[in-house]
Amino acid sequence: MKDCIILLCIILLASCKETSKEAQELPITEKTEQNSTNAVPANKKPLSPHTSAMAMVGDAHIHIDYSSPGVRKRIIFGGLLPYDTVWQAGAHMATWMETNKDLTIDGKELKAGKYGFFVIPNQEEWTIIFNTNWNQHGKDEYDEKDDVLRFKVTPKISEEIKEHLEYNVTKTTNDSGTISLSWEKVLVEFPFEVK
């Protein structure tokens, strides 16, 4: 009986040594994977989060979809984004706006539909552009011949910095409102009416 217990102890001890020896011989990556199966990788916050702005104005549902870049201590207008050049008014994919009702903007009609939203920034005035090609990366496929509406607005300059690009659709009366974008020290807005 004593011999059986001693033999069993020897077998267990040898087995433990083999397991320990195998663990020591594993490459570091395999050890890490075995020891951190429950570890969750830290998710980085995107630099230009995808977001949207929307509102009901009268019977019109207006939806703006965009990616919101940050200033990150950069000069944006006249720096990162040169003046007098078309910009997709957001990061990554072109910003788009959809309305289910016809709108009047700057005295012109914008038919119900989905449009790419582009701008041409300038110190004195910005050109606002609605374009039929709403599904494109940046301004890669932008073509002026696809514009359905263009008009100019005067930017408002602030002393405070708006860190992330932000759009707002604001109802001002039962059948009218404003659309605005603000980023860095610039605010650009324009009124619209639901037809």
Q: What is the gist of this entry?
A:
By secondary structure, the chain is an alpha+beta fold.
Describe this structure in words.
This protein is of the alpha+beta class and 195 residues long. It has 2 domains: 2-35; 50-194, no CATH class. It is 16% helix and 43% strand. The protein contains 2 helices and 10 strands. The strands form 2 sheets. A 6-stranded antiparallel sheet has the order 1-2-3-6-7-8, with no helix packed on it. A 4-stranded antiparallel sheet has the order 5-4-10-9, with no helix packed on it. A hairpin with a 5-residue loop joins strand 6 (113-120) and strand 7 (126-131). The protein is globular. The chain starts with a helix and ends with a strand. 21% of the residues are buried.
